[in-house]
Amino acid sequence: MKRPWFLFVLLLFPFGFVAGCSEASRSSSGDAASSQEAAPQLYQCPMHPDVTSHEPGDCPICGMRLVPVEQGGEPHEHAAEQGNADCEVAYWVAPMDPNYRSDKPGKSPMGMDLVPVCKSDLAVGGDVDNRVTVKIPPQRVQQLGIRLSPVAFTEAAIRTLRTPGTVTVDEEKVRHVHTRVAGWIERVHVQAVGDAVRKGQVLYELYSPDLVATQEELLAAVNAGNSGAAEAARRRLRYWNVSDIDIRRIEQRGKASRRITFRSPIDGYVHALKAIDGMYVEARTQLYTLVDLSTVWVRGHFYETELPLLSMGQQARIQLPTTGDPRIGAIRWLYPQVDARTRFVDARFEFDNPDLRLRPGMYVDVQLEIDLGPALVVPKDAVMRTGRQNIAFVHIGNGRFEPRALELGPETDDGYVVYDGLDEGEQVADQATFFIDSESALKAALAKFRSGGAGGHSGH
Questions:
Q1: pLDDT at position 276
Q2: Number of domains forming the structure of the chain
Q3: How many Cβ atoms from other residues are within 10 Å of residue 439's Cβ?
């Protein structure tokens, strides 16, 4: 009686096992499907697995296209095709071996998906110092702070030169006072450096035997009615700087004066003084140095490169250090030598000084506004100087920045004059250009590296 029951259980067991496995399989398949639908698509750089994104794009490190990653972690078989719809593919390359190429997508010998190389990536611009066009997504443009500015044409490009200047005396208005005749100073009337003097003001009184003798000759000739001898004596006194006023007084008085007064030849100030009471002087003795400060010189310093912008008669403006009031002057001389130590070229400006606010030794700020005429101007920050070329990155649309070699002219207040390389109205990057430049140079280097492997393995 036991045998039929035992046989019945053995017959039912295989059917129950198969049904259970089928149900478990359906449950596992359903969970996997729901998990696959819930997980977002992930994109990964073939060269830098740590770089991932939930949106297609380029690797910020090497510039390669991000490829989709399957939920199991392996790159999708057709990921490169899906991620490069806007790329005109030149060939396909193994991520870990750029020498391995193929004319169609597939797998590398290491089992990795081949990645496409765009034709635009192969156009290495040797004429722009090994830089190529780069594409930056709009959100990255905002994050990096890249700013675009137009290349503008202006009717008057202005270059402002600024330099510190030092006020000096006008050397054309400096007078040295000598006696021209030997004698003794018996009285000094102007006794201090810095004193103001007027033209004709008495400076000192001198006793000289020669002056006394000549006065007596003059008086004798006048008394004798000898006009020729009298005029000769007057002329001799004038040669010794005796004024006509003093000569007339001698004739009116009818008696030789023991001391003769000597007067200032100009309006100005005493710059140097050596006259002392009782001092014996000769013709070579310099007693006073007088300066007229109604006009002054300002000496400024300019770089060698700025010399072509300077010319005689060019207007300049200074700011008074005390009040800030402007003064207008002009270049009167450009010195013919360059300072070997500082590499500066000096310029001499002349300014009117009627109120005597400009004093020798004072520092002022000199400013020249130079009109360069009509010109095309690019912003300063848009120009990258590589040492061999001047480059600007032009936005050509769709987030693409193209490097351009520029032929630049003089610098202006707003930028540089452009002779060649840009057109009016084009947009150039003038902020965060260092990032664009590094991306462009790196992309060019990678393209060269890839193109250098033309003789390597070929794929499918």
A1: 93
A2: 4
A3: 22
